[in-house]
Structure formats: C-alpha cells, structure tokens
Write a structure and sequence with these properties.
One of its GO terms (molecular function) is structural constituent of chromatin. This is HU family DNA-binding protein. Belongs to the bacterial histone-like protein family. The chain is α+β, with helices and mostly antiparallel strands. It is 44% helix and 30% strand. The chain has three helices and five strands, in the order ααβββββα. The strands form two sheets. It has a three-stranded antiparallel sheet with strand order 1-2-5. A two-stranded antiparallel ribbon has the order 3-4. The longest helix has 20 residues, at 18-37. The model has no long low-confidence stretch (mean pLDDT 95).
Length: 91
C-alpha cells in the first residue's frame, strides 16, 4: 500500500472526502516526523512506537578502493511494533 492507497482507504473507512482524508494523513505523518526530529518518542498504544536511535561513528571500507573511511555518527528513526499489532499480523 502506498500513500495514495492509504488516503483512499482512510476516506472510505471514515466517510471523509478524499481531500480531507489526505489532510488528516499528512497531518499525522508530519506530526510524527516533527516529534522524532525533536528527539521525542511517539507511542501509539496497541500499534507501536516510533523513536530515534543514534548510530556511533565507525570505520568502514570503500569496496572499490579498499581504502578505510570514517562513517560519521547518525540519528535514524526506528519503529517497534506493539503486541496487538504483532498478534494481528501473525494471524
């Protein structure tokens, strides 16, 4: 399912116009992204949680030249599924 299909499904399930469903979906996604960018965690009980993890700087190799390069530290978003979501998917 892509974003357009998600908007269509939200529109059908809620009875909202497609334009209103698009605004709602975009608002949720933007809020999650903004919250993660601030370093906070988003918990949706029964669904899962979004948070950020810090990856330490490390040494790597350029596969073409075999030269050692330093890979800088980064912050990456991660999702951890909740129990209810795991149970629902496992069926």
């Amino acid at each position: 399912m892509n974003k357009l299909e998600l908007i269509q499904e939200v529109s059908e399930r809620t009875g909202l116009a497609k334009k209103d469903a698009e605004k709602a979906v975009n608002a949720v996604l933007d809020t999650v992204a903004d919250t993660l960018a601030q370093g906070d965690k988003v918990q949706l009980i029964g669904f899962g949680s979004f948070e950020t993890k810090t990856r330490e700087a490390r040494m790597g190799r350029n596969p073409k030249t075999k030269e050692a390069i330093e890979i800088p530290a980064t912050t990456a978003p991660v999702f951890k599924a909740g129990k209810a979501l795991k149970d629902r998917v496992a069926k």
